[in-house]
Design a protein that fits this description.
Layout lengths: L2 E8 L3 E8 L2 E9 L15 E8 L4 H8 L7 E5 L23 E3 L1 E5 L2 E5 L1 H17 L4 E6 L4
Length: about 150
């Protein structure tokens, strides 16, 4: 699988992951807590194999088109998730900003028992073109696995 999210740590309400493309570390990702029973907009994506696609019709497109006029060609959506829809890789720093989506960052910190990602906008601008190329290419697969290390 070309694109992989590996979860490495859990906070009280947060989950920290690493994003790899072709086996090379790209950035950290932050999600909500992993839950047995899904709570809308407050639950991490289940482990599994999914696809990436470019979404040009979701509500975040206008906001990102304005924020990144030269970069944005549509949101990068993780598609094929059970009981989830409109799950985008986007910018933000804390689990309160995830709404069930992974947030990207170039670093992380643990604050009051929960992880936060840092320099999210910078990380997004770096990974977006790579993820867009994957979403528009032939090998669109993305795997999500738990491998908690700390």
């Amino acid at each position: 699988m070309r694109t992989k999210i590996i979860r490495v740590a859990e906070g009280k309400q947060s989950t920290l992951s690493q994003l790899y493309i072709d086996g090379i570390f790209q950035c950290y990702l932050l999600e909500d807590k992993i839950r047995e029973v899904k709570i809308p907009k407050q639950t991490a994506i289940p482990e599994g194999n999914y696809t990436l696609r470019r979404n040009t019709w979701g509500g975040m497109n206008a906001e990102y088109r304005q924020k990144f006029p030269k970069l944005h060609k549509g949101m990068i959506e993780i598609n094929g998730l059970p009981n989830f829809s409109f799950v985008y890789i986007h910018i933000g720093n804390t689990f309160k900003q995830t709404a069930g989506c992974p947030l990207c960052g170039f670093g992380f910190e643990l604050v009051n028992g929960d992880y936060q990602v840092l320099r999210s906008k910078d990380a997004y601008q770096m990974i977006y073109p790579k993820l867009l190329a994957i979403a528009q290419g032939n090998e669109k697969g993305i795997s999500i696995e738990n491998n908690f290390q700390f």
